[in-house]
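Following up on my earlier thread - several people asked me to post the actual chain instead of describing it. Fair enough. Here it is, all 298 residues.
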Amino acid sequence: MMTSRGSGNRLASFLSLIALLLAVGCLALGRGPLNIAAAVLLGLAAFLIPQSLMMANQWERAVVLRMGRLQGIKGPGVFWIVPIVDRISSWLDQRIQTTEFNAEQALSKDTVPVNIDAVVFWQIHDPERAALEITDYRSGIARVAQTSLREMVGSSMLSNLLSDRKHGDEVLRDEIARKIADWGVSVISVEIRDISVPPGLQDAMSRQAQAERERLARVLLGQAEQEVAIKFVEAAEIYARSPAALQLRAMNIIYETTKERGATILMPSAMVDAMNPGGLLGLAALAQPAAPPVAPAA
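Reply from S.P.:
Thanks for posting it. Predicted structure:
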């Protein structure tokens, strides 16, 4: 709990200085009873103003106790307290704040030691309960967050922690919010920043991931070979029904391989006979349009 403030009350200091200067001025005017009484009153005011005039920033709340009992929550702005009778026990900051926490060598459900770093974002929504229900809410939030993190790690598999961090963030947020609900503090969010495992386990996980990728690559290669074989079977069936198509395909393959300048291909005569080039040339000649007749010379 914050019990002191980093910045002073400049307004109270300014008013106290003015009262002190007026007291000195009264004494300078003379030593009469009225001047002395006025100087005493102004000096007393200069002493009491810093003790009674308080000012809270927009995000601050002051817990005021009167004779040991809660008198009220003051702020923001300027407010007065009764010196000696009243006192400010603490100043509360209602801005969003963060608390870092971690779990070192916590065992997961599959008995793997892990180190986890996380941060919780929280805010005071009820200053009265935050001041009265717990001595130090900052330390309490840190302890509750660390305990909740260890409980979550112990009930989760390592693979789930690594693959689904958002779910872990939500579980931690709900668990921490449930435990500190009576403190007047609300949890906005929890974020797991880092999860580290021992180096030996990292190597084993890397080898496992590599083996899994190789298995998937081989499966995909087998599927591709199966699809290619199916296409070859379909092509073979088409060529079996049409020998001319097979011969044209063979000639097209020969043409494709001889497109490069200077390429020479040696083909067995049996293969040339099987392709029946004469028959193919005859088919090509029949396919061409007939030439016009030439008139005999005179």
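Residues 199-241 form the longest helix (43 residues). That should answer part of your original question.
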